[in-house]
Design goal:
The complex is a heterodimer.
Chain A: H1 2-39, H2 49-59, H3 64-86, H4 95-133, H5 136-142, H6 147-184, H7 190-200, H8 203-229, H9 235-267
Chain B: E1 3-14, E2 17-28, E3 32-36, H1 43-50, E4 58-63, E5 66-67, H2 73-80, E6 83-86, H3 98-109, H4 114-127, H5 143-155, E7 161-165, H6 173-190, E8 193-198, H7 201-207, E9 210-215, E10 218-223, H8 225-229, H9 234-240, H10 251-258
The chains are: A mainly alpha, B alpha/beta.
């Protein structure tokens, strides 16, 4: 029956059309962001340095306390878990290797990214969403000011700098957490622990961690901003978009982490 | 009469729904034009097309001889510098003070010194009666003051055309009348072309030089205030005399509608 075929094709169409539209919207926003962040500064539209610093304070400096506390605890937890296995084989000193390497390569970047998603990714979606609902975005456009350049680029610059910076900080505090536990409860000599950590860590470990952190910063900004710009209705939708910004950015941070880890495994 | 904006055969859609159905009109220079119509007639949509926020399905919008539906973003921005827009909720940026808000277009589009910009901002704020509020944030102002601040921002670049989206919405009669006075003053003193979108009749009777009335996506009237008052079009009479829409269906139809047939 031709009508059944037609129905079938219509169902496929109606299911795939929204997906096609979101792909179009996402690629449009990514395109705009990268144009205004990396190309237009060379065409006489400078980046707003003051706004960037402002965003860096909000996203970076203000999340230092929470990142220190969480990283410290993660360091302690890692040392405990490592000791649980390593003391069976009498290799307690390797706690230092495990804590140092797993924090710099993996846990430092990912913990920082998750905290930044929760703090800044959601804030970006809410800020842009409520600006959209209050016609502020329309007002910017009607004044001849591109909203992506005005609002998004400072946020992107801030996260591209601050997520790696916070990651370095998180690595150090985490290692310090492991150090504190090992030198007290596990009774490892502080100097031995220090030397063991320094010997275990390679520059490569730290650098791959920082590259991941940079990519996470980009992912978090794009997701938060995209969700914000997609707000069409009022306050209720701002709430929904904020939630999905956090969920989607944590998901995509982990997906891109998998990608980069696989890449570094084969190519470094 | 010199025309500043000409709209020809404009058709627009929201999704699949047709909003403006092939409308044509023109707006005279240096006068106050009111775009009048009931809720949902497409007047806000029309305004968004006039200022280039939305692209129409087809038709032309000619501003100062340029068809803005065919311009790219840079060319459109040049036209936008000659436009000031006061949005319904004023649309001030909440993260900035009133001074920074009004200074924003000057910072972005001119190379003036900071001290010059501050003086210009204070002049605009004085013009709208907001002297001394430069360091306040939008959230600290009342609705009427926000609108005045939004107007100061719209005036920042000394525009040729000034657009108002529902200027009296959400204001008490006294404040709304004050805003009407301000609109008349701007027109008389600076010879600005002013386009007001509204459905408030008292305000229309006070300010309008020229009226364009929309109904269900069609232009049903263009002319002066007196011509509007003397019109015998039933839809216009309903609007002017505040009559409700006629009952849409009979009781029988109603039962069919609620039964979902």
């Amino acid at each position: 029956m031709p009508s059944e075929y037609r129905n079938f094709i219509e169902v496929i169409g109606s299911k795939t059309k929204p997906v096609r539209i979101s792909i179009h919207n996402i690629s449009h926003i990514i395109n705009e962001i990268f144009y205004w962040a990396f190309i237009s500064p060379f065409k006489g539209f400078p980046i707003r340095v003051k706004a960037c610093i402002n965003e860096m304070v909000k996203a970076g400096y203000n999340s230092v306390p929470i990142i220190s506390v969480i990283s410290f605890f993660i360091g302690v937890i890692l040392a405990f878990q490592a000791a649980y296995q390593l003391k069976k084989v009498g290799a307690l000193i390797y706690v230092a290797n495990l804590v140092g390497v797993s924090l710099t390569r993996e846990l430092g970047p990912i913990i920082t990214a998750i905290i930044v998603s929760g703090r800044s990714g959601s804030a970006y979606a809410a800020e842009i969403g409520s600006m959209k609902a209050a016609e502020e975005i329309d007002a910017l456009i009607s004044m001849g000011i591109n909203p992506v350049r005005f609002i998004v680029v400072p946020k992107l610059v801030a996260l591209m700098i601050m997520v790696p910076a916070l990651t370095v900080f998180s690595d150090l505090i985490g290692i310090f957490g492991g150090f504190v536990l090992s030198t007290t409860i596990l009774e490892i000599h502080p100097l031995n622990y220090f030397n063991q950590t320094v010997n275990a860590l390679l520059v490569k470990d730290v650098l791959t961690g920082l590259m991941k952190a940079w990519a996470f910063g980009v992912v978090i900004t794009i997701v938060g901003v995209y969700q914000g710009f997609m707000v069409k209705g009022g306050a209720e939708e701002v709430g929904l978009r904020t939630t999905s910004a956090v969920v989607a950015s944590i998901f995509l941070v982990i997906v891109s982490d998998l990608f980069f880890t696989a890449l570094f495994y084969y190519f470094t | 009469m010199e025309k500043v904006i000409e709209v020809e055969n404009l058709i627009t859609h929201y999704g699949d729904r047709e909003i403006l159905k092939n409308i044509s009109f023109s707006i005279p220079k240096s006068s106050i034009t009111v775009i009048l119509g009931g809720s949902g007639c497409g007047k806000s949509t029309l305004l968004k097309h006039l200022i280039g926020l939305l692209k129409p399905t087809s038709g032309k919008i000619i501003i100062n001889g340029n068809d803005i539906t065919k311009l790219n973003e840079d060319q459109m921005n040049e036209i936008r510098k000659k436009m000031g827009i006061l949005f319904q909720g004023a649309a001030l940026l909440n993260s900035m003070t009133i001074l920074e808000n009004v200074a924003l277009p000057l910072h972005e589009h001119t190379k003036l010194k900071e001290s010059t910009i501050e003086i210009m901002v204070r002049m605009k704020l004085d013009l709208v009666g907001l002297s001394g509020f430069d360091s306040f944030y939008p959230s600290q102002l009342s609705g009427g003051m926000k609108k005045r601040a939004g107007l100061a921002r719209a005036l920042a670049l000394d525009p040729e055309m000034l657009f108002f989206d529902e200027p009296s919405a959400g204001l008490d009669p006294v404040t709304a009348a004050g805003l009407d006075e301000l609109i008349i003053k701007l027109n008389k003193v600076f010879r600005m072309t002013i386009i007001v979108v509204t459905h408030e009749l008292p305000s229309v009777f006070k300010i309008a030089d020229y009226i364009i009335m929309l109904d269900k996506g069609y232009v049903i009237f263009t002319g002066t205030l007196n011509e509007l008052k003397n019109s015998d079009n039933p839809r216009i009479r309903m609007f002017l005399e505040r009559q409700p829409e006629e009952e849409k269906y009979s009781p029988d139809d109603y039962f069919r509608v609620i039964a979902g047939e």
